[in-house]
Amino acid sequence: xxxxxxxxxxxVQPGGSLRLSCAASGFILxxxxxxxxxxxxxxxxxxxxxxxxxxxxxxxxxxxxxxFTISRDNAKNTVYLQMNSLKPEDTAVYYxxxxxxxxxxxxxxxxxxxxxxxxxxxx
Length: 123
Known about the structure:
The protein is mainly β. Helices cover 0% and strands 48% of the residues. It has strands spanning 3-7, 10-12, 18-25, 33-39, 46-51, 58-60, 68-73, 78-83, 92-99, 112-113, 117-121.
């Protein structure tokens, strides 16, 4: 059974940091580009970051550039999203997703999804 499981979410104060993890089971993660998406209440799901199969290519939503870093450890079958200098507007459910081809910021182009992890940035 192909599965992605996110972890690492929680409540953090503005300016704080969190590291999200996306662990795969049932398939080899290095054969897929992995994207992180988020969805806030009443808003559409948006692409936050994506990393290519070999990690040569990464991309970021403009509003998180310089604050978030995506990385992957294929030996552990896991992708990470390090989030620093968090802002209240980063509050959302964060999802990781996998697709066979190149990175994309479009949710519809991803086949496998995790269940999501809540990130709340508040004082």
